Sequence to fold (206 residues):
Amino acid sequence: MSRADKVSAIAELSEKFKSSNAAVLTEYRGLSVAQITELRNTLRGNATYAVVKNTLTQLAAKDAGVTAFDGQLVGPSAIAFVEGDPVEAAKGLRDFAKANPLLVIKGGVLEGKSLSAAEITKLADLESREVLLAKLAGAMNASLSQAVYLFAAPLSQAARAVEALRAKVETEGPAATADAPAEAAPETPAEADAEATDVAEGGDES
Fold:
């Protein structure tokens, strides 16, 4: 590889480190071309799986400010550069490694934080972003439905009362609403005086 090609390769790897949400370093010793292709297909949509040269990658990582892979770039190395959901990418790597033990997850970096192989496994155990968003949407819908019910309940009760009154009027006529007992209004002083005068002047009419 010429010097110009090396400079270009380092710049490309450095940009991948900078633009990715996460990166996972693996050793693929013993994996066939078909198995590597299968892994790439598994990660597609969330990450790109690139076979890298250790020396160039070390220089690129340093240029990008990534220290997570210091001392780990030995043997046949490949890096999963994650552009999508880190949880889904971690799941893909973990599941593939279970089925193909020759793939060794060595470590990673997520949003600038170094991750061990064990931490990447824990990341894979988390629920994906889509699942969390679906649960959040479900919780919000449930809360909104409950709120709508609470606001609508008094209106529904009022509507039923109005409907019952309308039905009563249609069945028994307008006078039906006047038959309901009502408390007598208290007498005013003028009404009390008038009644007392009537009694004094007219006496008992019986």
